[in-house]
Amino acid sequence: MTDKVLTIRGASKLRGKTQTLCDVDLDVAAGERVALLGHNGAGKSTLMKLILGLTPMSGGEIRIDGAKPGSAAARKATAFLPEAVSFHPALTGRELLTMFARLSGEKRADIAGLLDRVGLGDAIDRRVGAYSKGMRQRLGLAQVLLGRPKVALLDEPTSGLDPISRQDLYAIIDELAANGTAVLIASHALTEVEARTDRIAILRKGVKVADDTLANLSAAAGLPTKLRVVAKSGCADQIAAETGGARVNGVSVEITCGPDQKMDELRRIAAMGDTVADIEMTPPRLEDLYRHYAKEGRV
Amino acid sequence: MMTPRSFAIARAEMLILRRNRWLFMATLIMVLFALALTFAGSAPTGSLGVDMLTVSVASMTTLSVYLAPLLALMMSFDAVAGDRDRGSLSLILSYPAGRGELLFGKFLAHLAALGFAMTIGFGTAGAVAAYYGGAGAESLVSLLRLIGTSVLLGAVFLVLGYALSALSGSATGAAGLSAGLWLVFVVLYDLGLLGAVVMDAGGVFTQKIFPWAMVANPADAFRVWNIAASDSVAITSGMAGAASALPGWAAPLSLVIWPVAGFLLARAAFRRVEP
Question: What is the interface pTM, i.e. ipTM, of the complex?
């Protein structure tokens, strides 16, 4: 495909004798949101630094809109939100964003509008030293929005944010992607990434162990779905016996089944008639998937 | 180097210097020291037959040798290390500004602040001396030369401070290295040379090498330039001997080469920094 704005081929990084990244391939298309998951030290931040050209590659090739990492063209096309972003405390939000706009060559940037967009309209002329962690993160996001970047790299963008701020932040990220920016989000916050990204890549000890949509990843992992059947009083034992499930607390029976048996199982339970009072279905969550790919020795 | 990007950095750095009261404190220090020296040093005016401003410039030259490098290093030591400690360096470096541009932007702001403090400090003392003890055309030129060379001397230590800041792992480490650098250039180097001259007892070293070794140190080049250029300042400082053994361009050349070489060194060190 030609619309891959960010292409990574065989990226490797050696720090001393330890291999922090090993032969990683990853593509992000314009308008696509990709989550990069992994434990601490799995190589997420290193990969971002390689893309930014802040640290030299030991092997492989990275192209940002056709340009080499660290080149003027690549840096112009890239926006970055570092993990736990920080700014000089003596400057105000407006002054900092003005400086960033000038650094990126955006002469007509609407500073006040951008700060308003990230919810810092009231704090625009306050010093960053007086900002909360969430406000600093929002200011960091505001500088990402400067000048419509082709690629946005967000390292743990929601760390330290309250749930409402997280939602706001993801709304802005969605908008960014809708305008054609390729977004790569490194994150620990699995549940929020689940609904907010198009594709998930998992790194384990510097190796990419998964890279697909959530649906495909769960199908491939074959993780079981949990069905919890609530029985009418006195019928729990009968249901447990018929379905082969396990009794939990007096009235419920828990059944686990593979992704392909789910519908058969549901039909069987539906056929049991009034002995079933309710049924609850829990598909495998991202946490389970993540554990599956990140822990098991599969490459 | 003089790009809109380095001006963007310079503007932000200037705001920082004003906000954290650094500009105010540096100017205050310069004014207080310069005034104190002008009044304390006014005694020998009559006996030497020079005006009060000349004596004042000679005293302030000695002051500036210590103070200009100190003020410069205090500003520059955390230019790179401070940003790295704070974690804001990786973000700045992801922007399409070259590392030379970033460094030059900081340099512009710091040099302007230094120039402001020097001009106000020495200027005030000069005005006071001229008012009380008179000032001739020559002493005015000496004052202007003192201000200009002090800024140049400050520039040397600004860029050396950036180099240390880029080379050291943390702002605290950079502060320690800067204190060491100041001590070596301003105090120990001269002591070493003095010891060598005493040991040599008027031999080849004293006559041929010593003047050049002296002027190779920017702090001494500053002293020599100010003293050699003005006979009446030389009278009041008693340093004419060594200065007269050198061609007139030696000290100015040293003070011009140092900032340029130091900047190139600092840029090379900064380029190796991984945030």
Answer: 0.88
